[in-house]
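User: For a reading group we're discussing how well predicted structures match intuition. Take Haloacid dehalogenase-like hydrolase domain-containing protein Sgpp. Before you show the prediction, I'll give you the sequence so everyone sees exactly what went in.
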Amino acid sequence: MASPTFTFNPNLYLKFSHQTQSNNFDWTPCSWRKEHQRPLEFHFPLASLARRDRIRRASSGCNMQSAAFLPRLPQHHSHLCRSDNFLVSHHSTWTCPKWKLAASRIAVTRMSPPASTSHSLSSETSLAALAPLEAILFDIDGTLCDSDPIHYYAFREMLQEVGFNGGIPITEEFFVKKISGMHNEELCHVLFPDWEIQKASKFMEDKEEMFQRLASEKLEPVKGLPKLLKWIEGQGMRRAAVTNAPRPNAELILSLLGLNDFFETLVIGSECERAKPFPHPYLKALEVLGVSEKHAFVFEDSVSGTKAGVAAGMPVVALGTRNPEKLLTEAGAAFVIMDFLDPKLWKALDELEKDAGVTGIKT
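Assistant: Thanks. Here is the predicted 3D structure of Haloacid dehalogenase-like hydrolase domain-containing protein Sgpp, as structure tokens, for the group to look at:
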């Protein structure tokens, strides 16, 4: 019989000191899930240094050998992390009354699901929990502008030229599932696993040059963006742009949209420890702005970016400009809008106004 999928409170921590040639695990938040016909598994994200330091200061415990869990047990938490964002651990066996760690994975037995199984903020009105709202973080491609059709065209033409997929043009569905939201280094391995890295990197460079030429002629902002930016400026909110795009692409788009001076910082995924879907780019943006994740939210359009925002502890408002609403919701989006004039967005901002005395422009 199929088992329900759920995610555990990330406030439960486990010290993991095992070291291998390629990985060095330490104190990190963990989540767990129950999958179809599989035992429960712990999943460990790669925490930022700042978060890891906070955990070290706040926690005392022991390593894997003593098998001690910290006494921070389930409680309501509005930003539960989805286990899809994390790596599965694989280490030695130990046992204690209710827990069993098995070789090759950490399996949990005789444990009931937590009372709350929500993975993120469940509706637009939940943004009111962020009051006072201090910052809004934006993805760039597909969020500030509908650039995905340009990327799709460039990839389709160039991949066909090199004989990818037997010379058959890629579909938009393939683009959404395998390419959109990914950073170029990862795409080199996804698209060209048998190519030398230098050859794959050169392909990506040529593709970006093609994108930049096309974007200079065809790029348009997402509908309603000027109104939203006016609202943000009126509140004096902090703002950052966070993207997996190469820096030249990101800077070009911001320039074409006239937003060079709007954002306080531009964070590039490849310049962080890990790019999206890991939370590092968004955590870095919060650090630069000096804002807590409890008082900020994210605008995203991709599954990868949505997972990154949720993993960083923030609610994500996703734009369904290209990606299906179902995929974005499954990735953890609080709700999905079609553009920045969507009534759902302004309803949420009105809730913030009521709860925190925010005075912004009206719809």
